[in-house]
Amino acid sequence: MTDSQDNRISELEDEVSRLRVMLESAPDFMARLTVEGTFLYLNRLAPGFKMNEVLGTSANDYVAPEFREQQREAIIRVRETGTTQEYANIGRTGVDTMGHYLTRVSPVFENGEVTSLVMIATNVTVLEENRTLLQVALDATGLGIWTMTPDGAGSWDETTRRIFGVLEDLPSPDLASMLQERVHEADRALVREGLELAVRTGRYGPLEHRIVHPNGEVRWVSATGIATRDHEGRLARIVGSVQDITHRRSLEARLSEAQKLESIGRLAGGVAHDFNNMLTAILGNVDLATASRSLDEIRPLLAEVRVVAERSAALTAQLLAFARRQVIEPKVIELNGLIDRLDALLRRVLGEHIALGIDLRSRSCVKVDASQLEQVLLNLVTNARDSMPLGGRLSVETEDVELTGRHAQGQLDLAHGPYVRITVSDTGTGISPEALPHVFEPFFTTRQVGTGLGLATCYGIVKQSGGHITVHSELGKGTTFEVYLPRIAGREPERPVAHTAALPSVRSERVLVVEDEPAVRSVIERALQSAGYRVIVACNGDEGIRVAEEHGPFELLITDAVMPGLSGWEVGKQLGARWPALRILYISGYTEDAVAHGGVLDPGVSFLQKPFSPSELLRTLRRILDA
To answer: Which of 151, 301, 365, 417 is the most buried (most CB within 10 A)?
Structure first.
């Protein structure tokens, strides 16, 4: 044998030695078998076994009895077809222990024939145990797992199929059919946008939306997911979870109703308490006035009745503001200018023991009812003052902000877009976590004094103006209120039109009054007659139409906007069509959107809010008739 042959043999022996080390170091079991499945070679053994005892035995001796037929058939297929077979089974991990294996059997060809087999068995016991634990957790929480690839294909596990009402023998629907057939029509755009966002950001949801079962049943689900990418950064697939939250949504709705009932109960109790006090004062003074013998004794009693009645009107206005039923006339105003004009008044409200800091960074206008926004600011400042009895600092700030996507819709219940944020912060005592969720409810208060309507009024006014108000507070660390109002771009503030305060001149126009409340109808009739108007009254809408046909035409119609049967709006519409020159004044305690939508007065509509005094009524009539 030549030196070169010796060298070659030595190289081959070294290579075999290296391969043996590599095989013995591999974590998987690697074996060579006869075509019948008998071990010829093993790279390693499970603990407790000896190599000389295992070689020459059948591979089936080391798998659980229930998997032996499966393995025998796999070996036959490899031998007869020359193809690789893969299967999962349970086999020995030690002399006395069993575990899960993922097994792969491949053919070895010599001269075109299968002469032996190679078996590689990977111990996946830990993975299988973890998978079982995960499945237990998924089953316990009702979470389903789904995947979706860029072409819209995907896979659903058993729980996801059950949630969506898809039978097990049907294929998982692709994205297009899922959106069309399974997602509620009103939520398809939301789901589609969520998937598009996941492609860009790598995260899907969390989203809550409705689905429709094949039988038409509508369910609520919560879905979330994560996008995975390939080595080039391209989307590989989205892996997500879905959970049926129909029961949770139902419980939330019932809880919300219970909270509403609690709030309504508090509201009713507060209204009854305050109005009973005022009625006691009114009835008492009326009785005293009735028993009085001179006008000098009656006058102070009537003056007290008027004061209490005005307090009742103010309480009603606050309730309407909370309910967003006040009729408002929003105008484009420059916010910083309004706050500047309030500066002196705010300082008087706070007193000398509280420092006021104003930082006006907004450069935009908002469209609001200026007097109502002033009331919001005064209420917030008053609330802050009462939380700092020993002094402190209050800051009022304005800033232009842009709300986008999830932040606007999730946290603030606002459409995304440009807003002006008004921030009112104090260094007072703060609000407890228990009280914080209730601060905007009517008649809820934690103070010794106060009606509990101040913050409720703020909430109603801001919401009616298309905005939102939030509160952040901790005990001992002060409170911050943030008011968000839609920003108006490129608009000049509207300048107020000056009105003269001259008393109305006496005329003799013919006026039709339609009012279903006898006491109010009587006051209006007497006030107009005393001013020289010719008045005819009707007690409801149908009678108003009949009276108009018999005694018309009229120069002016005064009608309650909200009445049983034919509404004041319909009366005005019919009579206005008959007499185009007819002037119309609508009156009401609240409008039910009859003449004002969302509380905003329709253009060209004249409206007078109840309660009103005879002098207010006469001035309004004269302005309408002389316009």
So the answer is: 365
Helix (H) or strand (E) holding 132: helix 125-141
Q: Give the residue ranges of DSSP H helices in 26-67.
A: 51-54
**pLDDT tens sequence across 536-564:** 999 999 999 999 999 888 999 999 888 88
Collapsing DSSP states into helix, strand and coil, what is residue 116?
Answer: strand
Which of 8, 21, 519, 588 has the alpha carbon at shortest distance from 320? 588
**Spatial separation of the C-alpha atoms in residues 379 and 387, rounded to whole Å:** 13
Give the per-residue pLDDT at 219.
92
* pTM of structure: 0.44
Name the more confident of 423 and 561: 423
Residue whose entry in the numeric block shows the structure tokens 């807003």: 419
Domains, the chain, ranges and CATH? 3-127 (3.30.450.20), 142-244 (3.30.450.20), 257-322 (1.10.287), 331-488 (3.30.565.10), 510-626 (3.40.50.2300)
> Is 380 exposed, middle or buried, given 0-12, 13-18 or 19+ CB atoms closer than 10 A?
buried
Task: Write phi, then psi, for 94 (nearest 5 degrees).
Answer: -175, 180
DSSP H helix total and E strand total for the chain: 17, 24
- C-alpha 446/C-alpha 390 separation (Å) is 18
Paired tokens of 113: 């024939």
CA distances from 539 to 91, 544, 565 (A): 94, 7, 11
Any idea what the Cα angle at residue 193 is, between residues 191 and 197, rounded to 5°? Answer: 115
Nearest to 588 by CA among 599, 577, 580, 578: 599
Q: How many Å apart are CA 35 and CA 67, to the nearest integer?
A: 19
* DSSP for 467-531, written as a single string: -EEEEEE-TTS-EEEEEEEEEE-S-PPPPPPP---PPPPP---EEEEE-S-HHHHHHHHHHHHHT
H helices present in 531-580, as ranges: 541-551, 568-578
Cα separation, 321 vs 459, in Å, equals 8
Using alpha carbons only, how large is the chain's radius of gyration in Å? 41
- pLDDT tens for residues 589-621? 765 545 555 555 566 788 888 888 888 899 899
Over pLDDT 70: what percentage of the chain? Answer: 83
CA atoms of 536 and 549, how far apart (whole Å): 12
